[in-house]
Design brief:
By secondary structure, this protein is mainly α. The chain has 4 domains: 156 residues, Rossmann fold; 155 residues, HUPs (Rossmann fold); 46 residues, no CATH class; 95 residues, Orthogonal Bundle (Arc Repressor Mutant, subunit A). Helices cover 46% and strands 9% of the residues. The protein has 19 helices and 11 strands. The strands form 5 sheets. It has a 3-stranded antiparallel sheet with strand order 3-4-7. Helix 9 crosses helix 11, helix 16 crosses helix 17 and helix 18 packs across helix 19. The longest helix has 22 residues. It binds one RNA strand of 78 nucleotides through helix 4, strand 6, strand 7, helix 6 and strand 11.
Length: 485
Amino acid sequence: MRVRFAPSPTGFLHIGNARTALFNYLLAAHNKGEFILRIEDTDRERSKPEYIEQIFKDLGWLGIRWTEGPDIGGKYGPYLQSERTKFYKDYVKKLIDEGKAYYCYCTPEELDKDRQEQLAQGLTPKYSNKCRTLSDEEMAEKHRAGILPSVRFKVEGAGELTVDDMIRDEVTFALEQVGDFIIMRPDTTPTFHFAVAVDDGLMGITHVVRGEDHLTNTPKHILIMKACGFKVPRYAHMPLTMGPGGEPLSKRLGAMSIHEYRKLGYRSEALCNYMALLGWSPGDDRELFTLNELKEHFSIKRVSKSPAVFDKAKLDWVSGMHIRQMDENEFAQEILAFALDEKIISEEDYNTRPEWYAHILRIFRNNLSCYSEIKEKMQLFDTTIEYEDAELLKSEGARSVIAACEAILQEIDVIDENTVDNFLKSVKKRSGQKGKELFAPLRMAFTGKMHGPDLKEVMIILGRRGCLKRVQTVLYGEAKNGEGT
RNA sequence: GGCCCCAUCGUCUAGCCUGGUCUAGGACACAAGAUUUUCAUUCUUGCAACACGGGUUCAAAUCCCGUUGGGGUCACCA
């Protein structure tokens, strides 16, 4: 089995693209086949080298590995379409020689005019095939007039063509509705349809997995492949990914680039897991998978036919689960690396007290869906904090808790993992408050928020002085001299 | 508009091929409760769907036809 992912480098990889890559990869990996990366850069205007680089990086980050590609070569190279012009020219020549293709001298303006007229009459736009029958004389004349020809593929026969799709079974198209189409531009670059067909043929691709948007193009590809004498691969057209309203993906969510998700601190495995769930299910109730588990369980037969709506809430849940289920040390390492990389914690600050920072990072593990969320959460340890609900601090019960807290903090030497419990007990006893009545004011005074990480951990990290400072800020509007940090 | 694809809770989906076991299962989200002396996690419960209309059949979410709705595609873009 030989499978390929063939992006065009005209932009960054987003969820839609990446999901196609992933499904191809999973299909290959599950069947111990080859996964080939080919770059379709025939659109010289829009293709950019930096996008190619980014595709390598993003795919690599996701854990998708190719065995042949532009960067590592392979037996069927080159893997950049822009470097394969010789093949295209050879096959175009062959087709022309065999009478399966012909030169077309129609100009884009002419074509466009025809199309508009057909549209106006309510007809399906289709090329008139008028250059099919040009005599040598006529061609020579056009040539003299300086018109460079494109090359059209001759679509013959009025029959039907059936695509055997692995996801949709048999899909039949009437041949008469596809007009002769261009396979090579006047500048001798191939069009997408031609390049795809020739490359898939030449590279020995056995299974083509791509978006449903290509389903109606497939007859063209099959026609070309047959004309060139290639073995036609099996096809699988995956359902497209839609935006929240069912509209095509917009840049806001799903079309956000893979790179952006990486910057936000999503784990690649979580992203793959979620993308796989968009249109595929294992058949049982399982939803959480590592990449290896996906490879093991994946089946193209279990890909659904209908479009899937991208749901960020579910992505966040999957991602959060991956974070919670990973090894503790691995988590500590990853999140620290992220915080440092993204400068959420500066190198200097970190070096002054690495353990303190490690401790902070650790306590957020249970309420993270991606690492970048720590940036906001860490504000809780800034020198000054804002109170989400200052009113809460004003009730009589809350005042007594805070007052008791200050008094006790003055009496004790230290707050650490051994002493927090006793401290809390004392506050409880002296203030007469318990449960929520006790913790809510404390939480508000120490963190300024209603929700957050475990309060004991927060107090330990703040330390006795930090706690005292925050309590006094609530009590007197500011910390007493000499007691702040 | 022609052609093609699709149609189960708000969302992702299981079930459909091989009708009965489906008063339609799971998950996210949402709501309530339990655990947590707080928060989060976790657990339990609840809410919520077979688009519509015709057939076929003893029996249809499952098969057939139509309608409606959504998507795709009709380029010298991929």
